[in-house]
Specification:
By secondary structure, the protein is mostly helical. The chain has one domain: MetI-like (MetI-like fold, Orthogonal Bundle).
């Protein structure tokens, strides 16, 4: 009879063959109840929530950070609110979000939004403030309106910084997503991991964790390629 510690290790540390079998079952065999492929369904659901949340946070953070960086009055008015929001631990208010927005998609997206929006806003604001003051003065002297200054002169210069900030925020976005899916979801990568953990199904958990890592790495590569393709001058300046 094998020792208890040996049996526990066998349960917790699956063999490569067991993981391959689990991947085949989750990715390439249809679920009899739903008729879908569990891993594909989980991936699509998670990526949809992640992309919506990150896109909303990046868009709002860009718009607010740009204007706060350019206009002192707006900065003085909104900076305390953004700073206060950035101090709230997003995971701590997850139950409040589920109570306020329900357990459907909106609460999960809002968690990602609240987690990333203050960071992106403050980073864009700092990037705008680092632009040469002479450039702003010359643009206004030559007759540029405030809208033209913000969206035709400043915006193109800070877009690459936005991409960089989103790249740095992806890890946190995945964390918020998985936490939300673990609590209230019926599909998603985080949902699946926390569903099978009660059975100590490490043959499923480890491939899912690796798949999440590969998805995150692929998104980072895509953003890095977009940065190099769309803004080569930024790459040359920053020396990436």
């Amino acid at each position: 009879m094998r020792p208890a510690s040996r049996r526990a290790n066998d349960k917790l540390l699956p063999t490569p063959a067991q993981m391959v079998e689990a991947v085949d079952r989750m990715a390439f065999q249809q679920d009899r109840r739903t008729g879908s492929y569990p891993m594909a369904r989980d991936t699509v659901s998670s990526l949809k929530r992640l992309l919506i949340g990150v896109t909303l946070a990046a868009s709002a953070g860009l718009l607010l950070g740009l204007n706060m960086g350019l206009f002192p009055g707006m900065s003085a008015t909104l900076n305390p609110f953004v700073t206060f929001l950035s101090m709230i631990p997003p995971l701590a208010i997850l139950p409040i979000l589920f109570i306020s927005f329900g357990v459907d998609e909106l609460a999960k997206v809002m968690l990602i939004f609240i987690g990333l929006f203050p960071l992106i806003t403050r980073d864009i604001q700092l990037a705008v403030r680092k632009l040469p003051g002479e450039q702003i003065t010359k643009a206004l002297t030559l007759g540029a309106s405030q809208l033209e200054l913000a969206y035709r002169i400043v915006l193109p210069q800070i877009l690459p910084r936005l991409i960089e900030t989103v790249r740095l925020s992806l890890g946190a976005a995945w964390l918020f997503l998985i936490a939300a899916e673990a609590i209230a979801a019926d599909d998603g990568l985080g949902y699946r991991i926390f569903l099978v953990r009660r059975y100590l199904a490490m043959d499923v958990i480890l491939p899912y964790v690796l798949w999440i890592t590969l998805l995150g790495y692929g998104m980072d590569l895509l953003l890095r390629y977009l940065l190099r393709w769309g803004f080569p001058w930024y790459i040359d300046r920053e020396g990436e």
